[in-house]
Amino acid sequence: MTRITVACLDMGGTTVVDDGMVMAAFTAAITGLDLPGDAFDQAMAYAKETMGQSKIEVLRHITGDEDRAQQANAAFERQCAVAVQDGQIAPLPGAEDTLRGLRAAGIKVCLATGFAPVTRDAILGVLGWGDLIDLTLSPVDTGSAGVPGRGRPFPDLPLTALLRLGGDSVGSLAVVGDTPSDIESGLRAGAGIVAGVLTGTGSRADLERAGAPLILDTIADLLPHVTG
User: Contact at 8 Å (CB) between 77 and 26?
Assistant: First the structure.
């Protein structure tokens, strides 16, 4: 196996406690759209099905209208800000030790998320992880020269992490997340290690159906697989 030099780790449900924050924010955003009953239920089901993906892209799909999607996304971000301020953010057990272990092994760490930068940075500010990571990415950060960024399940987030952090090849990249979208993104990137964790929304069956080559109970189980 090629030596792992870059680890691209998901945030909510993988390294950070979700505790229903994302679905609560989607509920607030979708409620504000005033959809009829069946459409509301379908929208909520789609939001759950696409966990891990870019939030604005999910809302664009639900609304089919850019202005309404932006309004719903603003409501989503406001709800997340309230959750952060209310102390609903915490590291998952073993996450901080794993980040330290990766850095000690010479592996550069990127935290990637479907959140917009404002929400992502608010979460990281509460966690105080600035000295434990090398890079943070949201879907918007993967665009260039007028080309919009893409989130999961596209491979853009892990590949951007690899390029910015100077990885040797896709074989030296590890991608870890808790949703099928995370797994698809890592596989499409050609990452040397693609692992699912069972601390978020994805069940073992979900991750297996997505093709996860490796499934871990928690992020704390990652180190032996990337430093061995």
Answer: no
